[in-house]
């Protein structure tokens, strides 16, 4: 299969990543269906995309005509069979839990055409842990977009030992077709490249905070002012979701048994309290309804 053979894409999951990935594909000229089991989630996804593209029109990033054309290519569906049965390429963006992803891939393998490539957006679960539930492990890979997908340019494409060269190349070509830079990883490793580097920074920041060396706000100031990062590590954890960070660290610890990979107690306390970052209005920082930090 070649990238030009991709006439329809199915994105499974309409959450913070899925709906934006779907719009990227629609903006790239491809008929796309975003599927979710929740009709409410789909309606929320549509509203968010309308708000984003309306803002782009106001700022002159796209024309009203291009916005309407993109939405004309985008379908929202709660029916997985309807969404996936004629898809040439599927991007799974459901909750970051292995058992859920395996169930989704097993179903996708049954519903999609034999030629379809099945990609997972996961940044923590390597595709070989999922591909064995399908009859096409050679057509399975990771296609890891960064948050928010409509802004961030890079996509990590990860091969397992079973992933074919054709699958990897088509996925890289698809990245280019939708205006993103694809980076190929020929071997699997949890966290891939970006999140392993970022994770090292976050772990050191958490250690400094846990030791009482500096307040989390001051650590963020050093990283943004001295290292010129756009966000400090604690700001970024709030953006990503502290529950996601907690889950990723637990996964890494389960694999490595390295105590340095174990989430610190203050992160566990945040999760227990439901203080998960921007999405709950409180994490390390407090947020208003427009996601601005309360002073």
From TrEMBL:
Stretches assigned to the 3-hydroxyacyl-CoA dehydrogenase C-terminal domain: 191-287
Pathway(s) it belongs to: Lipid metabolism; butanoate metabolism
GO molecular function per UniProt: NAD+ binding; oxidoreductase activity, acting on the CH-OH group of donors, NAD or NADP as acceptor
Site entry: Important for catalytic activity: 144
InterPro entries reported for this sequence: 3-OHacyl-CoA_DH, 3-OHacyl-CoA_DH_NAD-bd, 3HC_DH_C, 6-PGluconate_DH-like_C_sf, 6PGD_dom2, NAD(P)-bd_dom_sf
A GO BP annotation: fatty acid metabolic process
Signal peptide (UniProt feature, chain positions): none
Keywords: Oxidoreductase
Keyword Oxidoreductase assigned: yes
Pfam family, one: 3HCDH_N
Ranges where the 3-hydroxyacyl-CoA dehydrogenase NAD binding domain occurs: 8-187
UniProt superkingdom: Bacteria
UniProt family annotation: Belongs to the 3-hydroxyacyl-CoA dehydrogenase family.
Protein name, per record: 3-hydroxybutyryl-CoA dehydrogenase
Provenance organism: Melghirimyces profundicolus
């Amino acid at each position: 299969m070649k990238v030009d053979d991709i006439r329809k894409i199915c994105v499974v999951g309409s959450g913070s990543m899925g709906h934006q990935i779907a719009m990227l594909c629609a903006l790239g000229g491809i008929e796309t269906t975003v599927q979710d089991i929740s009709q409410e989630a789909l309606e929320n996804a549509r509203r968010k995309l309308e708000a984003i593209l309306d803002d782009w029109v106001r700022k002159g990033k796209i024309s009203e005509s291009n916005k309407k054309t993109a939405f004309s290519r985008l379908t929202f569906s709660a029916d997985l069979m309807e969404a996936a049965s004629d898809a040439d390429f599927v991007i799974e963006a459901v909750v970051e839990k292995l058992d859920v992803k395996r169930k989704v891939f097993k179903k996708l393998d049954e519903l999609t055409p034999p030629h379809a490539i099945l990609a997972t957006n996961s940044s923590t679960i390597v595709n070989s842990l999922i591909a064995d539930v399908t009859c096409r492990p050679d057509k399975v890979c990771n296609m890891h977009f960064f948050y928010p997908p409509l802004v961030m340019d890079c996509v990590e494409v990860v091969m397992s030992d079973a992933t074919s060269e054709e699958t990897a190349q088509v996925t890289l070509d698809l990245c280019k077709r939708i205006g993103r830079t694809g980076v190929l990883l020929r071997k699997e490793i949890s966290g891939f490249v970006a999140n392993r580097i970022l994770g090292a920074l976050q772990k050191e920041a958490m250690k400094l905070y846990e030791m009482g060396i500096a307040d989390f706000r001051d650590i963020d100031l050093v990283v943004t002012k001295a290292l010129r990062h756009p966000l400090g590590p604690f700001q970024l954890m709030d953006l990503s979701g502290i529950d996601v960070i907690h889950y990723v660290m637990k996964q890494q610890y389960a694999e490595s048994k390295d105590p340095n990979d174990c989430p610190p107690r203050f992160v566990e306390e945040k999760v227990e309290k439901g203080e998960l970052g921007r999405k709950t209005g409180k994490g390390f920082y407090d947020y208003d309804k427009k996601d601005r930090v309360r002073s």
